[in-house]
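re: that chain from earlier
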Amino acid sequence: MLEEFYYPEQILPEELDHLLAQGWYRMGQSLFTTDYVLFDERIYPAIWLRNDLNQYREGKTIQKLRKRNQAFQIRFQKARITPEHEWLYRQYQKGIPFLVSSSVHQLLLGYGLGEQDLFNTYEISIIHNNHLIASSYFDIGANSAEGISAFYHPAYRTCSLGKYMIYLQIQVCHGNGLRWYYPGYFVPGYKQLEYKLDIGRECLSYFDKKDMQWHGIEKYNGQGVSLDMRNFMQQYFPQFPQEGL
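^ sequence. v structure.
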């Protein structure tokens, strides 16, 4: 399977838990699962991750991040989309080397015109001198949570706010008794997403589509290699003509 989408009319907390455990993830107001992603005209395998919060222990990394960012104010609340969020997101887009959603509205609500969120979405924001400098969104189910996005102003790049907000999400979920936290996928060979492998590694596992089971990240053997678009089409779709690729 390469990619599949699910468009629910509603999503119950228990259903979200089940879908996350099967390698599905939110996109706008839908959910999707995929085996591969496209970056820089190359096809990479997508490896889904989750943290077992029963095994989570606060380590030195979060302690260092907390000390580094102690001058900032942290807010936890139900998700909002304000002009300030949209402005911050545009600044974030300018400083990253990969494509993301065009706006916070599209990120959370997709291309629809409505404002209703099917998901139980929360926000962690970071404030400095009364200005929003970073924000992140995550969904909460019955016993699970999924991190949707974390973005920050490029002027604060050295503060590692993206990683800091993921840790903050994990701590909120852990403190509220949730069992699982899903940070999305990582991409072998694509360095921009390898940071996920260092967050809560002691309780991190990956989803193996071959046996549809979760395994400790220490068992991951580096499966999958990237392919350019032509080789990918030749390998997986040999019936299609290759001219023009």
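The domain at 3-27+40-48+60-187+223-236 is CATH 3.40.630 (Aminopeptidase).
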